[in-house]
Amino acid sequence: MTDQTIEIPVTGMTCDHCAATIEKALTALPGVKARVSYPKATATIESLGRTALPEIVQAIQAAGYGASLPYRASVPITKEGLRDGPHVAIIGSGSAAFACAIRAVERGGARDHD
Q: Which letter, b or e, does each residue of 49-88 get, where b requires 16 or more Cβ atoms within 10 Å of its Cβ?
């Protein structure tokens, strides 16, 4: 895999020590160069080496934190004007519907307002 910078949202961090723990877990993977930011709640992967993205996410989860593969804005738009991948409609209002919408986007669901 070629070197590229990828930003992965990370949940569950409560301090800079959490970020350091995740960074240590990621840099232990072969060829991975990573920076983790507690204020931004992200892991910035600067080099994957021979490590696949799912392994990165698994390493974050194994360290006790939440992570999911990032939504790719570069996903091609189809002739119908829709992005390939999952599309989710949240019907309802209130905090539960809002939480579902956020979770769907975190897991790669398309956003209409892109």
A: eebeeeebbebbeebebebbebbeeeeeeeeeeebeeeee
Tens of pLDDT, residue by residue over 41-71, are: 999 988 777 788 888 889 999 999 999 876 5
Exposed, middle or buried by CB within 10 Å (0-12, 13-18, 19+), for 38?
A: middle
* Domain locations in the chain as residue ranges: 6-67, 74-114
Quick check: 79 pLDDT over 50?
no
Q: Look up the CATH architecture of domain 6-67.
A: 2-Layer Sandwich (3.30)
Whether the predicted model's global pTM rises above the 0.70 cut: no
Say which DSSP state 71 is in: P
Beta strands in 18-83 (DSSP E): 33-37, 42-47, 66-67
Paired tokens of 33:
């160069």
